[in-house]
User: Fold Flavin reductase like domain-containing protein from Bordetella genomosp. 2.
Amino acid sequence: MYFDLSAIDRRNAYKLMTSTIVPRPIAWVVSQDEQGRNNAAPFSFFGAMSGDPPIVCIGVGSRPDGPKDTGANLRVDSGFVVNMVSAALLKRMNVTAIDFAPGVDELQAAGLAIAASHKVAPPRIADSPVAMECVVRQILDMGPERRIVVAEILAFHVRDDAVLDADRCYIDTPNLDLVGRMHGGGWYTYQGELVEVPRWSEADWRASGEPRD
Assistant:
């Protein structure tokens, strides 16, 4: 089936994306407003875009009457923290997805402990297995209801038992037990069966006799 996105409703284009670009990592963003009040919200339009410099991008939407709290807070220039969501934290993450009134501390509402960051003002979620302290490098206005935030990672926090070799930065990724966003209103996926497919050199591939058609 062919879908021409220029000929269909934007909502349907969104549905095509969210039901086929899966699973998506979740950026559980902790930010602060101008008064220093904490805010937490999850975003699944999120990904790593560069290793050098270490860049992530987050798609942030708006409310009909103005920007969401995160969108407004990321213009304050106090930095923010991307926390990754483990299976144990999924239900608490879902609480922070509630469309609370501005000024409500979602971290407190969800019963989440926090820990101080080293390089940015907002705290990190203490029980998150991975937290990235970030600063905004650019905000791209893609339309009246969508911003793409380009951010640089300044520091990582990784749970101790998931670090295999600190000097080499080897991480036990399965031990992080991260969840991914799937389709529809509330579908997520846990880490399941892992399949390793080593990358080949051209010489090894040619010597293998694998089909080439």
